[in-house]
Amino acid sequence: MTQETVKGPASYFPSIEKKYGQPIDHWLGLLAAQPPMKHMELVNWLKNEHALGHGHANALVAHHLHAGGK
């Protein structure tokens, strides 16, 4: 039995949940509720409004946009 390693933005998800105390769906829901913005605008919004670190915010936005977010 082998365990698959999570790669890409999702590899940050366990540490995001642990550090900020919210499930990933919470953050993705907040991103989905935002008006259309560019990648870095969303990253900066998460950093400024929710005090996320740059790497964590970037991972969430990359996942959100790749999954078909605005």
Shape: globular
What oligomeric state best describes the polypeptide chains here?
A: single chain
The overall average pLDDT, rounded, is 92
Low-confidence stretches: none
Order of helices and strands, N to C? HHHH
Query: In angstroms, what is the radius of gyration?
Result: 12 Å
The structural domain count equals 1
Largest sheet features: none
**Distance separating the two termini:** 38 Å
Please indicate the percent range of residues in DSSP E strands (runs of 2 or more): under 5%
SS content category = mainly alpha
- In DSSP terms (H or I, runs of 4 or more residues), the helix count works out at 4
Helix content: 55-70%
Could you tell me the number of beta strands?
0
